[in-house]
Amino acid sequence: MAEDGVFAATGALAVTDADAVDTPTFVQQTGTPGVHGNFDITSSGNWTYTLDNAANQQLAQGEVITETFTVTAITADGESTTETVTVTVTGTNDAPTVSTAITDSGNEDGAASAIDMLQNASDVDNDAVLNVANVSALPGWAVRMGNVLNIDPPDSFFQSLNVGDSHALTVTYDVEDQHGASVPQTLSVTIHGTNDAPTVSAAVTATTDEDQTLITADLLTHASDADAGAVMSIVGLTQTTGRSVIPTIVGSQFQIDPSGFQDLDDGESEDLVFSYTIEDEHGASVPQTVTITVEGRNDAPTATAISVTTDEDALPGTIDLLATADDVDTNDVLSAITGVQVEVVYGLEANDEIQMEDSDDFYMHRAGDVTFKRRGTDENDLWLDLGNGEGVLIVDALSNSTTQTVESFAFADGTVLSVNDIRDILLANMPTNGADVVNAWYTDDTIAGGTGDDLLRGRDGADTYQFAAGDGSDVIEGDGYLDTDRLEITGYASTDAVITQVQNDGDDVVIDFGNGDRILTRNTLLESNSDHIEEIYFAGDGVTLTMADIRDLFLTQSQTSGDDIIIAPAGNFDQTITGGLGNDYIEGHYGNDTYIFNAGDGCDRFFDSGGAHNNDVLDIRGYSSTDAPYSYSPGATNDVVISFAGGDQIYLANSLTESAQDHVEQIIIMATASRSPWRISVPSSLPPRRQQDGTRLSAATWPIRSRAGWAMTY
Questions:
Q1: Which of 576, 638, 677, 712 could form a disulfide with 655 if both were Cys (CB 3.0 to 4.6 A apart)?
Q2: CB within 8 A of 318, min separation 6: which ones?
Q3: Do residues 524 and 476 lie in contact, with contact meaning Cβ atoms separated by under 8 Å?
Q4: pTM (predicted TM-score)
Q5: Which residues contact 350 (CB under 8 A, 6 or more apart)?
Q6: What tens digit of pLDDT does each residue of 248-263 get?
């Protein structure tokens, strides 16, 4: 019989007696146990062997075992004889089995591991030999060697995994014995991501010259992070080499103004080196440096006119032609060369006119023959270049002073130009495709820099600054007083712009279009009536933003449902400020400010730095006056804390000071009642000022409700 086949074998024994006196019978056996099964025989000789199949699964294919049982036949007169019954059992092949699927895990950059693919597999047959077969496709970082799967987590495949990311591999295969019987199995491996520090391939370098307006470098150039979605930021910027400059940092953009290096001569240069750290969102970092090389350019000498008074009887003398000359370049040597005679004209208070005559003995001075140039330290002198080394200098011609000014210019061809005409000609000729510095006059001017990174400076008058898509990165300095200066932007809508405050100067505003076009407006948020632009117009959608609109925009951007720090723009403006949900720090400035606190807003701290004669109001909504117990802040007896049963809390800095400034003057609850903070008496809920033994209880020990999560100390 065979294992796993028919589990019972039967047969019949016959016995005879030579005396033929009687018929012998067999001694009956029932369930006689053997090694591998049980034996039964009836008195008539019919026998049965029942194999214990479950107990014999270890038999390998072809393996044979035998069982022998002794039977006895007996006659009536007591004679007996014995015989043996031998049963042969032949083994068959059993397929392997697996108890559970195999699982394993590791970390990116972890040690390589070898996984036994036969773990959890077994075969009951004696001397069974198991192997792995029919393995599914494997990636390069998983290599099978026989029955072992080798996993190498440092493989570059895993470097993009960030913290919290993982990659899973599932391998299917068969566990097979030497006779081809098999069972399917699954192996799963999970590799968990770890944080990789940022790396840099080279230092950041940039080159500019002393005459450029701004030099911009991206501090994340040459920086990378293998982790997918990694966010890199700049921390700890420190200058290590070169004369001290203060850079402007917006995100990763680094800017400096090289105009302070005018002392560099042509061929000279100076390196400015800054060190900083590039850090990812998990705190891993790499050091980096940025080197800005400022190259010198030759600056023309400057000089003021030399005036010498003498008389007809004076002795001959000398005049130092370099007496008023200077050159900002440190190592330049100045010398006087042969000059030409220049006619200098001073206008009088009446309407003066310069006439350019056409004659044989004088250059033909038609309007097209004359080149107009600005001269003088304030660029208000007008130089009429007549060619052939001749020219006319009209002192103060371009100012709007009522004295010493020429009002019009008449040329031989009949052309008459006013001073305003000439100003327009000069402004129109200023913009180039490079980095320009365009200075306007004390009149209503239209100023454009064209392409390139330009500095546009206006003065008194209602000036219009023009910026078109593709113009680059411009800086605008408005210097007018009580005028409406306007920035007109063409090629963009207001929705194309990201408007932010400059980090190290809260009065400056950046309008960034994200493609290299960018405008920095100086002093935009000042409360002054001068030195800034009053309107910004976007031609793309016809939107005009005033400075009040910009201030409101910045307030709105900083009011979120989280823990906010909201600092209102400086200036004497009336502003309404609310922190919304979360534990917020809110600071106002000059002006009549209104702070709004709604039920459920959390724990807010209010600090008002306004001046005297302002009426700053705290408007509490969603509570009645009976809901608001007042208490002193421990250790700061001029500060007031208002605590509500729901966990809301308000901290008012300097509320009880007698000063006329730097605090909230009025509290309104549900718009039905108000009380001035400095008139608040100690609430009756506070303990007495003396303990039972008569010892005075200091304000710092009075109980006061507090709330976890405040990022400040009372």
A1: 677
A2: none
A3: no
A4: 0.40
A5: none
A6: 988 899 999 998 888 8
